[in-house]
Design brief:
398 residues; FAD/NAD(P)-binding domain; 2 domains; six-stranded mixed β-sheet; 19 strands
């Protein structure tokens, strides 16, 4: 088995396959797993427990929310006990890869997948090593877990519609202890067109003295959008963090189809995680969905490999694999499917004063809710819990 991409999706799948005794090669184009560690990496506490994540990959825990904007307003919601965690994304990737290696997976960093072609009984994949040498890897299956770049899957075919993209910039800041304490214990989001047009900003606490600050926007092919660098500088100045020492700068893209119906299989090439649009564009979240997709695909692959060992036909093996998209949609739920359309409605429209006024009315209506209700909205897509408060805004009625 060849897995392309050592992000959470690819590394988790490789770990599961190796644990099941499958021969796995995991390749990653970056030379270090802590490089380009772009992810806000916030998730609910139950996900930390569900996926068995160790304490050392958790940078901090949070128990509340702070929403800044659309103008200068600050709204806060607090809970008595932790609701979630912010992960150290580089540490998470390293731990998953170490786990896969401990079970026997072979890992090759600084290795880029270039192309693949179907051959009798499997797939032949061409990769480029760090020294420039080309190598052919033959395997029964290939999994493209390369994220939005879709290194082997390529762009969706005709009739699938374009991928909706978002772009983000994130800095890791070192700040004074007194400054860090004002931001710790909660997730802070900055909303409003005067802050980040067609997007939002965030400040998440990391280890003591460290803050993760980011800005992102949905990409609008119909209009010119300003660069994110000046937007970040303005945000830092307005919230009093422009004096922080920048330890790391990174950024990246996220892309997803809105209906999430693109093929998950091309012959013996399979898509996983962000490569098949599992990311949540509404909240810019992808880790939980990537890990979930890995476990669903793992079950399908193990079933197919069992059928192969029993001498069943290739068509019967493919039936087991082709249940993967349906099972994934069932696992993530119908609200996950709705989140992409709500993201386009919410973020692309947040570009002028009228949109800010609509957002202000929504946030005012949410002030009486609890911190755990906001978690249910962002992480569980529980839109219906807000009834008349949120639905008119989300549907564009006000």
């Amino acid at each position: 088995m060849l897995v392309v991409g050592a992000g959470p999706a690819g590394a988790e799948l490789s770990r599961g396959l190796a644990q099941a005794g499958i021969d796995v090669i995991l390749i990653e184009r970056l030379p270090r797993l802590d490089q380009a560690a772009f992810s806000s990496a916030a998730l609910p506490l139950e996900a930390v427990h569900h996926y068995g994540l160790p304490a050392h990959v958790v940078a901090s825990r949070w128990s509340g929310w702070q929403l800044i904007g659309p103008a200068q307003q600050r709204r806060q919601w607090e809970h008595g006990t932790p609701l979630g965690a912010v992960l150290d994304f580089g540490a998470l990737r390293q731990w998953l890869v170490d786990q896969a290696q401990s079970w026997g997976a072979r890992v090759q960093l600084a290795t880029t997948a270039l192309a693949c072609r179907q051959v009798p009984g499997g797939v032949l994949t061409q990769v480029r090593r760090s020294d420039g040498r080309l190598q052919q890897v033959q395997s029964r299956w290939v999994v493209d877990a390369s994220g939005q770049s879709r290194a082997l899957l390529g762009e969706p075919g005709p009739g699938m519609g374009p991928l909706v993209g978002g772009i983000g910039l994130e800095w890791l800041l070192e700040v004074e202890p007194s400054c860090w304490r004002t931001w710790t214990g909660r997730l802070s989001f900055v909303l409003g067109s005067s802050w980040v047009s067609q997007g939002y900003g965030w400040v998440f606490p990391m280890q003591s003295g460290l803050l993760k600050v980011g800005v992102c926007r949905l990409m609008d092919p119909g209009s010119a959008q300003p660069a994110l660098g000046p937007t970040m500088a303005q945000l830092l100045s307005r919230i009093g963090l422009d004096g922080g020492h920048v330890i790391d700068r990174h950024g990246g893209l996220i892309r997803s189809s809105l209906d999430r119906r693109e093929p998950h299989r091309q012959g013996r090439l399979l898509g996983l995680g962000d490569a098949v649009s599992t990311a949540n564009l509404l909240g810019g979240e992808g880790i939980r969905h990537a890990l979930c997709s890995s476990r669903v695909l793992l079950t399908a692959l193990l079933n197919a490999l069992k059928l192969e060992r029993l001498g069943q036909s290739e068509s019967q093996q493919l039936v087991a694999i082709d249940r993967y998209p349906q099972l994934l949609r069932r696992e993530l739920g119908w609200r996950w499917g709705l989140s992409g359309r709500l993201a386009r409605r919410t973020w692309l429209g947040l570009s002028h004063a009228a949109a800010d006024r609509r957002l202000e009315r929504l946030l005012t209506g949410l002030e009486t809710n609890r911190a755990e209700d906001l978690s249910a909205l962002l992480f569980g897509y529980r839109f219906e819990r807000y009834g008349p408060k949120a639905l008119p805004y989300l549907l564009g009625w006000r």
